[in-house]
Structure to design on (556 residues):
C-alpha cells in the first residue's frame, strides 16, 4: 500500500517519533507530523524540524497512507480514536508502545484492527521528548510486530518493510507473548530500578553517592512517571507475577545473607553470573 | 613516611591493583608487586608488566614503605596476617576493599592498626583481573579513607597523598559510616541486580532479550560470585536492613500496580524520579 516515496505520518515527536522523523528525513521521505506541543512546529532553527510538514489536528496526518502513532502508551488509545474515522483500506496504522494487548483491543473495538499493526521497537532510554531523539536509533534494535488475527497481510508487510528500512531487527509474535515477555525483560527492570530509588531516597542516600554500578541500576528510575504509570498498569496482569518472582529472588538472597553460609551465598551469586553469561 | 620517589608495594594485580600499577608506572614510581597468579610475572610482551618488580612472597613487598593490599575482601585478612610480622613504624599499609569494619578489626587484632589505613576507591566495574585494569581508573573517583582511632596521623596523610596522586576525590569517614552507606550505595544495587538475573533466569528470559535499560539493571549480576559473597557477608549487619528496605519499596510498587490506581501509581514513580534528579 506504500512505496518508498510515499509520505509517512507521525503523531508525537518525542524520543521515538522524533528519531523516526530524523531517519525518514535523511532517507528523503516526506514526513507529515502532528505534535501536541505546537512549539516544535514554530522552531525554525532546527534543520530537521524545518523539513517536516506539521499539521494542526492528529487526523490530518491521514493524508499519508502509513501513519506511526508515537505517543506514550496512555495516550495512544485516544489518538487511535481520533484517527479511526479516517481509516480506509489504503491506510496502515502502526504504534510504538511497550504494551500491545491493550492497544490492539482498542483497535478492535474501533473496528480498525484490519489496518492496525501493533509494533514495539526496543530502543531509547529513560529520557523523553524531541531533544532526546537521535538519528539511527533503530539500527540493530529489536522490533516486535504483533498482528491481530484480523490484521491484513499487506498491512503487516508494510509495517515489516517500514521497520527494516530504519534498520530494526523485526520479530513477529502474538501480543500475549510480547506482553508476557516484556513484563520480565523491560517492565520488571524498571520496577526494580524504581524500588532501588525509593529505598535509597528513604535511607537518605542521594544519587551522587552511588558508584558506577549503582548508577546503572538506578538509572531507569529517572523515566517519565506518567509514561511508566500507563505501561505498568496496561500490562499489570503480566507485571504483577513478574514482580512477585523478583520478590522471591530477593528474599532468597536476603535469607542467604542472613544464613552467613559461604557456599550457599556463592551458589546464589554464581546462578546470577551464569545467567548473565547467557 | 614516603616521598614521591619511594617504591610502592602492591599485593594483587587485578582490576584495582593493576590499575594502580599502571598509573604508578606512568608516574615513574618503582612498583614492587606480588600476585598470586605467577603468569603475570612471566608475561614479557606487556610493556607495563615488564616494568613491575615481581616478588615471590607477599611479605617481600614490604621492601616498599607504602603497601597497597588490592585483593578481594575475602582474601585481604590473610594478606594482612602475612605482612603483619614485617610491619615497622616506617610502613603504611592500605587496602581497597568494599567493606571497612572487618579489615580494620583484623588489623587491630594483629596489632598493626596504627600503621593500617582502611581505604575504598569507588571505581571499576563488574569485571575483574589484570585484563580489566586500565589507566586513570581513579581520576575523579570517590575514595573513602577510614582511619581507626589508633591509626597514626602520618599514616593517614600518606594514604591521602597516595589517592590524590592517582586523581581520587578523598573523603575521610568512620568505618561504621562507610559500611552503612555502602550497604545502600553499592551492595544493595548489587543484590537488586542479582535478584533480577535470578528472576529472569527462572522465567527463561535470556540476557539477549533485554533492552538497553534492562541490560544496565542486570549488568552487576555478572560480577565475581566469590568477591561478592565475601562483600555481602562481611557487611551483612548493614546489608540485611538495606535489602529489607528494598523489599518494602518493591512491595509498595507491586501493591500499587495491583490497585490500578492511576494517581497512586504516578505518585510512587514521581518519588523515584524526583530522587534521581537529586
Amino acid at each position: 500500500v506504500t512505496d518508498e516515496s510515499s509520505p509517512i505520518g507521525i503523531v508525537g515527536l518525542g524520543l521515538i517519533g522524533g528519531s523516526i522523523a530524523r531517519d525518514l528525513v535523511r532517507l528523503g521521505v516526506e514526513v507529515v507530523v502532528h505534535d501536541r506541543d505546537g512549539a516544535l512546529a514554530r522552531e525554525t532553527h532546527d534543520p530537521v524540524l524545518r523539513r517536516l510538514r506539521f499539521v494542526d489536528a492528529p487526523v490530518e496526518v491521514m493524508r499519508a497512507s502509513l501513519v506511526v502513532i508515537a505517543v506514550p502508551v496512555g495516550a495512544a488509545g485516544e489518538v487511535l480514536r481520533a484517527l479511526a474515522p479516517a481509516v480506509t483500506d489504503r491506510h496502515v496504522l502502526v504504534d510504538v508502545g511497550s504494551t500491545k494487548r491493550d492497544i490492539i483491543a482498542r483497535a478492535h473495538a474501533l473496528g480498525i484492527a484490519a489496518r492496525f499493526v501493533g509494533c514495539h521497537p526496543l530502543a531509547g532510554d529513560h529520557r523523553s521528548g524531541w531533544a532526546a531523539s537521535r538519528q539511527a536509533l533503530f539500527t540493530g534494535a529489536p522490533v516486535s510486530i504483533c498482528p491481530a488475527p484480523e490484521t491484513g497481510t499487506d498491512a503487516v508487510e508494510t509495517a515489516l518493510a517500514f521497520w527494516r528500512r530504519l534498520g530494526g531487527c523485526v520479530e513477529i509474535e502474538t501480543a500475549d507473548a510480547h506482553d508476557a515477555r516484556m513484563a520480565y525483560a523491560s517492565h520488571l527492570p524498571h520496577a526494580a530500578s524504581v524500588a532501588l530509588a525509593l529505598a535509597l531516597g528513604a535511607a537518605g542516600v542521594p544519587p551522587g553517592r552511588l558508584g558506577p554500578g549503582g548508577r546503572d541500576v538506578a538509572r531507569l528510575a529517572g523515566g517519565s512517571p506518567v509514561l511508566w504509570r500507563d505501561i505498568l498498569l496496561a500490562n499489570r496482569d503480566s507485571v504483577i507475577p513478574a514482580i512477585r518472582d523478583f520478590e522471591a529472588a530477593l528474599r532468597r538472597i536476603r535469607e542467604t545473607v542472613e544464613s552467613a553460609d559461604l557456599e550457599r551465598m556463592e551458589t546464589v551469586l554464581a546462578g546470577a553470573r551464569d545467567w548473565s553469561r547467557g
Notes: Chain A touches chain B through 84 residues (CB under 8 Å).
